Amino acid sequence: MFRLLVSVALAAAVAAVAVAPATAKGPNVASICGATRCIPIRGETAVWPLLSWSFAPFVTRPAPAPAPFYTIRLRDRSGIRWELLYVPKRHAVRFWQSRVPPYSQGVGPYWRTVPESAEDVFRRAVRKLSPRIAPQSWRL
């Protein structure tokens, strides 16, 4: 009987945790900019897909040949900021983060290939924007 009560209590606790809202920890504000305008995005659920892919293992790459691009700026409640330059034609993104907790230092900028899992997210995010004109060269 005791084991049954413990099992029921454990199952109830697991169910309560499973339906409890997640603690807000990720970016909750983003701005996606093209040549003439920016689109704001608010809310962690809407913003998180723009960054969730970045935690997968990767290898840095050289800067791609210049091509039209978009900028994506994100921030969270603690003041951490991210800036991405998305270059769809080259399947590349330049990544910069202001601070990586628990440290006070930032990372980047560096270039990396956009994984397939993020290509659709980025394409949908920029679909109503015209890209910025390609620069002569990328300045880091």
Notes on the protein architecture:
The chain is an alpha+beta fold. 24% of the residues lie in helices and 27% in strands. Mean pLDDT is 83; it is low at 1-23. Strand 4 (70-75) and strand 5 (81-87) form a beta hairpin. It is globular and about 35 Å long. It has one domain (25-126).
Radius of gyration: 19 Å
| Helix percentage range | 10-25%
- Number of domain modules: 1
Order of strands in the sheet with the most strands? 2-1-4-5-6-7-3
Averaging pLDDT over every residue, what do you get? 83
TL;DR?
With 140 residues, this protein is of the alpha+beta class. The protein is built from three helices and seven strands.
Descriptive keywords:
alpha+beta, single chain, 7-stranded antiparallel β-sheet, 3 helices, disordered N terminus, 140 residues
Q: What is the element layout, followed by pairings?
A:
Elements: H1 2-19, E1 29-33, E2 38-42, H2 44-47, E3 60-61, E4 70-75, E5 81-87, E6 92-97, E7 107-113, H3 116-126
Antiparallel strand pairs: 1-2, 1-4, 3-7, 4-5, 5-6, 6-7
